[in-house]
Amino acid sequence: MNITHAKVQPFPRSPPLHHPTFLFSSGQKLPFPRKFITAPIGRSSSFASILCKKHTLLAHGCFGVSRSRIRSSVSEVEEEQKQKSVVMKRAYPFNEIEPKWQRYWEENRTFRTPDDVDTSKPKYYVLDMFPYPSGAGLHVGHPLGYTATDILARFKRMQGYNVLHPMGWDAFGLPAEQYAIETGTHPKLTTLRNINCFRSQLKSLGFSYDWDREISTIEPEYYKWTQWIFLQLLKRGLAYQAEVPVNWCPALGTVLANEEVVDGVSERGGHPVIRKPMQQWMLKITAYADRLLEDLDELDWPESIKEMQRNWIGRSEGAEMEFYVLDSDGRETDMKITVYTTRPDTIFGATYLVVAPEYTLLSSIVSAKQSESVEEYKDIASRKSDLERTELQKEKTGVFSGCYAKNPANGEPIPIWVADYVLGSYGTGAIMAVPAHDTRDHEFASKYTIPIKWVVTPNDGSCIESGKAYSGEGIVINSSNMMVGLDINGFSSKEAAHKVIEWAEKTGNGKKKVNYKLRDWLFARQRYWGEPIPVIFLADSGESIPVLETELPLTLPELDDFTPTGTGEPPLSKAVSWVKTIDPSSGKPATRETNTMPQWAGSCWYYLRFMDPKNSKELVDKAKEMYWSPVDIYVGGAEHAVLHLLYSRFWHKVLYDIGVVSTKEPFKCVINQGIILGEVQYVACKGTDGNYISADSANELGEHFQEIIPEERVVKSGEYFVLKDNPNIRLIARAHKMSKSRGNVVNPDDVVAEYGADSLRLYEMFMGPFRDSKTWNTNGIEGVHRFLGRTWRLIVGSPLPHGMFRDGTMVTDEEPTMEQLRALHKCIAKVTEEIEGTRFNTGISAMMEFINAAYKWDKHPKSIIEAFVLLLSPYAPHMAEELWSRLGHQDSMAYAPFPKADPTYLKESTIVLPVQINGKTRGTIQVEKGCSEEDAFTLASQDEKLSKYLDGKPIKKRIFVPGKILNVILDRQNVKVGVQ
Ligand code: ANZ
């Protein structure tokens, strides 16, 4: 799946930075990590000066030395310094430990889930949205979700579950094909190269995937079953062909995917793109609309995703009403326009009809006089996307058809208009326009001076605002015509709608209708790099015939030339000998379908294949599916909240209906991880005179420059950030989506090289709540790296000279103290609770607290430390495995039981007791639960704050309620209470 983070841009883009001092403070990628620049002079002063020099040289390109020369000499020094710095920074020997344990896991296939698992044990299927292996490799957004699922997988294994935690590749896709067009490199080569890179990156992060189950959507053994599902859909009438508009780019001679069209022109070359109807394969997802809607209620998914799915399905109840077209003499013809309305109660207010520009009957309605303007209008509309057409803010446009229809309720002739705010693809492609009660119609009628007739008043009798539509429900007025037997005056909108439908059904003027926004799924792409659609067409009749199931997989033919055909024919049509075939049943010549499936296809059902990835006889074995279904937790980006999840739910339901799967829904729980934005930038505004201006006043000024301010020159003041040396200057703090062009991309490989995979994993989990967006912060990763270093040194001991570490550990065999047991069990309880609640960051805080407490102990009993290492292992598995083995264990800890919190140690043994002096609470003391009055009084007299009230004062009496309060009454006659 292609993870795009494009939607999030929480802060406005800054104006271009053009002040000369921005040369190397302007967010361009610095050749060294920023922390080197800020390092104390004593530690890396020579380096810092090299850095400055380099910048100077690069900025001015002077000193008569060629740039490349300077670069190469600088990079040698840079490399040397970097290595030194890694040794210096290394809080523990992660660069030895991590590859060692990765090798161990790989060699021992530690995380393999055998085919014949003991099914009497509970199961846990934890799945990541599998990635599209792009050429850019992993970005730090990937490990966020992957670390979370890895923690869950490791945790559940240790709790005795059979865990299914697989990984694979959503490997068909546009970039590989575009690259093939540009370079002639076969998309398979590029894709396999990218997959290899992704796989090794994932392995370097220590994720516990069962690599024996790896699948890739481009492998024929996999797409055989994607094609098989298509045939099942075809068999059940759920796949069909229809003429639908596609993005046709005449200049490039190709059909473009939506993502290749930007603002009406091709992304490549900026050529105009038009909508052109073409014969396409469609999947009838609309047949499942109600079930897709109803079954959402049972799912443990974020409410926001469920709501997005509901909106996408967009169920609405209304009526279809018939409006007969009038001839030029005003007489009723046989031709009728059926409209879809959700407000039949407003029918008396329908003062015109609108048909979409692509309305099929349009040409037979349009008058000769209007035909040219209608054709012109249709042409303009064909260049607009549905989104552009329906945008509320856009000015409405339209053209009169020259023709009228009869409003069946009041018998009045009303004009028929053509306007693109009505879509051909929704309802019937035609509407009855009620300008008094629909905002868009109101705007349109006002523009073209069409009558506006009020037929509903608000329930509370309030006045209708003039110049605006009243779109709410209310009491119906002006709506009676006894000639046709319809009188709805005085009824509520709901009752009136009901009555109109009843009347329409009785008189043949219409019927009740449920509509969905959900459209059938356009299931064909004019691309090479996709699954071939297993259908052939007979040469004589053009009849479509499904490829026999026994002939699957229908493999993609080899192709050398991936360039578009220029005719709109898909590139596969170039594979002439593949296209030409014979229908096996009739022996007649036939041609193969040359469209391929969209990228969504492979990702619709991959979670099922992971259950049984090597099965060549069935998509998935029944027993295996019964055991592993449904996916217990599915983690991925929110950008897949609608389409991917809806499409897979649809396929799953079809597979359920034909008995391939045993559950109605594929994913029990879905979680979206937040987005990781680049480091926060602090920006100061400058006036045209070059002086700083506070960000709050800069907005009003409009004209200003911006300068990025290094973190060390920034302080927080209340809610804002200000310049350290001038707190009156408020700064803008902003974070951007990571992108190459901004130079703020953090590469996980670099982080792993510098701090280790465990630090990266821990940091990504510690950044903040898992579901929230968060900003990358290099100091943050240093923080968790230090924590791991502290943990290591606590257990293994301080480093020996030369930075080496001793073997074994420093733990002792003593019995743990009560304090130690309490600290441990508190940590176990918290970590367990937080992993179960997917609050991974607070789980880490609990471990940090434990380590802080443990540093205060003289001795570190093995039993306590061992349990802690087990707690740490899902988060930082490399370090945990190393410590586990140093603690004397032969096997991996991957299946060692996860510690259980003992409630005896969780009970708080002390309480906070409020102390009053003469009835006024003056402070509190910490006492043992069963503490006596005498002990409480002694503690109170020793307390720094309370002693000031009590010292040397005569006491009249003491009131003590055990566990609740101690009240000391002083002898007032002799003393004045107060603090001197
Ligand atoms: C008359 C009317 C009066 C309407 C009124 C609304 C308010 P939903 O709820 O989204 O289903 N409509 C129908 N087909 C359309 C199309 N193809 N393109 C654009 N608009 C279309 O909306 C249904 C309402 O949207 C319908 O009810 C219709 O306008 C409009 F006071 O009919 B109504």
UniProtKB/TrEMBL annotation:
GO terms for molecular function: aminoacyl-tRNA deacylase activity; ATP binding; leucine-tRNA ligase activity. InterPro entries: aa-tRNA-synth_I_CS, aa-tRNA-synth_Ia, Leu-tRNA-ligase, Leu_tRNA-synth_edit, M/V/L/I-tRNA-synth_anticd-bd, Methionyl/Leucyl_tRNA_Synth, Rossmann-like_a/b/a_fold, tRNAsynth_Ia_anticodon-bd. It is an enzyme of class 6 (ligase). It comes from the Eukaryota. One of its GO terms (biological process) is post-embryonic development. Residues 129-261 form the Methionyl/Leucyl tRNA synthetase domain. Its EC number is 6.1.1.4. Gene3D superfamilies: HUPs, Isoleucyl-tRNA Synthetase, Domain 1. The keyword Protein biosynthesis applies. Residues 310-504 form the Leucyl-tRNA synthetase editing domain. Residues 821-930 form the Methionyl/Valyl/Leucyl/Isoleucyl-tRNA synthetase anticodon-binding domain. Belongs to the class-I aminoacyl-tRNA synthetase family. PANTHER family: LEUCINE--TRNA LIGASE, MITOCHONDRIAL, LEUCYL-TRNA SYNTHETASE. This is leucine--tRNA ligase. It comes from Theobroma cacao (Cacao).
